[in-house]
Amino acid sequence: MSALAARRRPVLAVCGLLLAGLLAAAALAPLPYSVAQPGVTADVLGEYRGEPVISVSGEAVPEEPGERDGALLMTTIAATGPDTPVRLGELLSGWFAEDRAVLPKDVVYPEGDSPEEIREHNEDTMLRSQDAAVDAALEKLGIAEDDIDITLRLEDIGGPSAGLLFALGIVDTLDGGESLTGGATVAGTGTIDADGTVGPVGGVPLKTQAARRDGATAFLVPLAECADAAAEAPEGLRLIPVRTLDDALASLAALRTGEPTPAC
After folding, report:
1. In whole angstroms, what is the distance from residue 126 CA to residue 50 CA?
2. Contact between 163 and 154 (Cβ < 8 Å)
3. Scanning 18, 116, 129, 143, which has its CA 20 to 30 A from the CA of 1?
4. Is this structure's pTM higher than 0.85?
5. Which fold has domain 39-78+85-257?
6. Residue 157 — φ and ψ, nearest 5°?
7. In the chain, where are the structural domains located?
């Protein structure tokens, strides 16, 4: 062995130890990401944790409400908490898993630094979403707000993404006619404005998995998120793009009668 080679061996050994140390540190260091997976669903026409999701009273409540069957499932994702460390191994596992996604933490939790601040933000956006859903549904039905009292409950679920499903559930509860779903299990997601405009929410591919897992055969997708949903759509789940509450109602009517619906 040459003198040069003999001198290189200790240097290479030290470099190898340093590299191993750096890799170990990277594997153990918390990273600014969250790992998300399909979350719970809730039928807005039924109960969640023992409480009706939609309760109505007042002059505008039909004396003989139509028979309600099928389900309207709002969907969620479940992500690692804002103060839960996510390390390199979990990140790599999430990247390669079909039922998980790696997202920047500030995308999953865009407001607030502490868990309490994030919880308060999510509760606030949920309440504003519920108010908008009530306004959109009553406008569609031509019912004055003074004639009805509507209570919406979804314990421990925050954010605005149930807005579209809340509005559909209110219409289904108050219109007194045929069930919107026609007996099918339909899921969806989307924010809603008081004028009925449906907006994107994020996490749609994971939400479609949750919907199919819980028996849905059709999924109402905000139009802006059709491409994301279609890229990883579960087998047997029809993806229906919607821009407004009217779009969603028209597509549900088409599903009931077997007519064609828009598709992502």
Report:
1. 20
2. no
3. 18
4. no
5. Ribosomal Protein S5; domain 2 (3.30.230)
6. -115, 120
7. 39-78+85-257
